[in-house]
UniProtKB/TrEMBL annotation:
InterPro entries: Rieske_2Fe-2S (IPR017941), Rieske_2Fe-2S_sf (IPR036922). Keywords: 2Fe-2S, Iron, Iron-sulfur, Metal-binding. This is Nitrite reductase (NADH) small subunit. PANTHER family: 3-PHENYLPROPIONATE_CINNAMIC ACID DIOXYGENASE FERREDOXIN SUBUNIT, FERREDOXIN-RELATED. One of its GO terms (molecular function) is monooxygenase activity. Residues 13-108 form the Rieske domain.
């Protein structure tokens, strides 16, 4: 799915409706030509990261999540939503992006 600019002053772009995502689900969107994984957490909040694991390019949006982390589905590396750090210090951090819901629309700053 491709995003559209919401507010060029803040850098946020709309990626889709929160109603289209089930809690616990991740989806990949294209934002500024870059693939971004967006997750709807169990508490209803949203998080956004790079869509590709920095280890071997695994599809992060397909990973299991909790309120704090996402697990790469290929090699089970865990990455923190807060700062992208991996629990294995030998693996590069996963880029993270600000995400929010405004009037039912998920927005990501890129």
């Amino acid at each position: 799915m491709t995003a559209e600019v919401v507010d060029a002053g803040t850098g946020f772009v709309a990626v889709g409706s929160i109603e289209d995502m089930t809690p616990g689900e991740g989806r990949t969107y294209v934002v500024g030509g870059v693939q971004i994984a967006v997750f709807r957490l169990g508490d209803g909040s949203v998080r956004a990261t790079s869509a590709q694991c920095p280890h071997r390019g695994g599809p992060i949006a397909d990973g299991q999540i909790d309120l704090d982390r996402v697990m790469c589905p290929l090699h089970q590396y865990l990455f923190a939503f807060a700062d992208g750090r991996c629990t294995d210090p030998s693996v590069r951090s996963l880029p993270v992006y600000p995400a929010r819901v405004v009037d039912g629309i998920i927005e990501v700053a890129f």
